Amino acid sequence: MTEQEKTTTEEPVTEPEDHGLEYLTEGRRRFMDNDMRSAMHYLRRAAILFELSHDYYHYCETMNVLGVALAANGNEPEAMDHYLDGLDCAVQHNIPISSITILNNIGSKYQQFGADERALEYLLRASEIVEATPMDADDRLPLWRLIIDMNIANAYRCLGRPEEAQIYMDKAGRFNAWDDKDNVRIFYLSYRVSQANLLWDLGEKIEARKMLPELVELSMKDRNVSNYLQDMTDLLSLLEKVGEQSYWEMALQSFEQYAQRHNSPDVKIASLEGWLAYFKYYDMKAKYKKACVLHTQLTLEMKAVKNKERVDEMDLKVTMREKDVTTRKYKALANIDALTGTGNRNKLESDSAILFQNAIREDTFLAIGIYDLDHFKQKNDAYGHLIGDAYMTCLVRVLDKTLGTLDRVYRFGGDEFIVILTDVNRKSLEELAEKIRKTLHEEQQTDDMLKDLEEITVSQGYAYGIPEEGDTILDLLDTADKALYQVKENGRDHYRIFDYQDINKLIEK
């Protein structure tokens, strides 16, 4: 897909935010086609669009797939960055399916490098979330329960704890939909290879041998792009222990054909290392020597390919930064307060103008609240700016909890915040003001930086009414400011509500 984009310093051109799903779908497709570089391009764009539109569910999903693609491309450090970013987002926004998939993928990466103790930490966490989540919450949960049970079983087996491995393998074996769904069937080779390896380790060698024809046949057709390399590594390890020459050779030939088709340096080298083990086992000295030479050549070629891929990755990052990330930074600088995540004055001006005109046109109530932390300067001077910032972010969390969103919360300057409210009346404003006072005290007690410090309080000034033609948003702001001044003059830590159309008429609690 070719795109032409043009950016100016005055008005960056941004793409519609609903294109995120299109980019995610295309990224997935290219990943399955083993076109990793293009897949990462589309997935990165999708992640930016989902983040901008606050679509955290798809953002987490995209970060997970991007992590898988990066890992498949040999870039584990960056893959881990994306996994952890996605996991933080999933935990923060309570998205269990994303937490489960990312934890499993992190655990799988540790398994791949033989760090099974570390892998278990993540896999068992994933298992706990699966068990705590109703199965009807997401139709993929049964599949992820199966995959995680298999991975835990493999980790315990590799740690020399086959009895514990058997518990989780039995749980995976109870899954009864292997033949019903394609997305489940692609993991069947992983399951059966794991099962055979465990039988061998438990001493049930005859049963493990009986499974070899099926395993070799599966290796020729059930090829899950994200698991096949590990599946074949595990299968070849089993065949080496069993020493069944015909099946071993058939599996190696199947693996080599797969490597030739997919043209992946990692898979080619893994395939060749499988042959090296085979030649060494059967003392085929001439073939072993020839394979060693080829292995050296492939290793050098892979190094060159990896270097080129890293250069391409750096180029891609530069391009993405110039195009997509610039859009995100522009929006953040133009509309968002960096410290608190609320809107800034620019956003207040644009949002208030629209909302004010809507209220005039629809003849509905509009209200503005102004919040000012009491004695903030003294606290800031006494405790330092970090504590001052913590007081402000504490208030913002309270506003987020009481309003249910920060979409209409704005930092006006210093410790002063403004909220725009629609479809309100005096009673609802009074209830809101009281709730903010109560919640602020409770929130401070949960903040490790603030709970032992001087109590934080806030003065609140509100103005509300039905705007008329000729009125301006400044009338509302001015009236709310007068209400706030009254609160400060009368002891602070309270609120006042004015009817902005008649500031002499005080509507008090």
Helix content: 55-70%
For CATH, the homologous superfamily of the largest domain is named as Tetratricopeptide repeat domain
Query: In the CATH hierarchy, what is the class of the largest domain?
Result: Mainly Alpha
Termini gap: 61 Å
* CATH fold topology of the largest domain: Serine Threonine Protein Phosphatase 5, Tetratricopeptide repeat
Helical segment count: 21
The 3D shape can be described as elongated
> How many distinct domains?
2
What is the count of β-strands?
Answer: 6
Work out the radius of gyration: 30 Å
The CATH architecture of the largest domain can be named as Alpha Horseshoe
Strand content: 5-15%
Overall SS class: alpha+beta
Question: SSE order, as H and E?
Answer: HHHHHHHHHHHHHHHHHEHHEEHEHEE
Strand order of the largest sheet: 2-3-1-4-5-6
Low-confidence stretches: 1-17, 320-332, 504-509
Major sheet characteristics = 6 strands, mixed
Quick check: average pLDDT? Answer: 82
Task: Walk me through this protein's architecture.
This protein is of the alpha+beta class. Helix content is 67%, strand content 7%. Mean pLDDT is 82; it is low at 1-17, 320-332 and 504-509. It has two domains: 17-254, Serine Threonine Protein Phosphatase 5, Tetratricopeptide repeat (Alpha Horseshoe), CATH 1.25.40; 345-507, 2-Layer Sandwich (Alpha-Beta Plaits), CATH 3.30.70.270. Helix 2 packs parallel to helix 16, helix 7 packs antiparallel against helix 8 (162-173) and helix 10 runs parallel beside helix 13 (228-242).
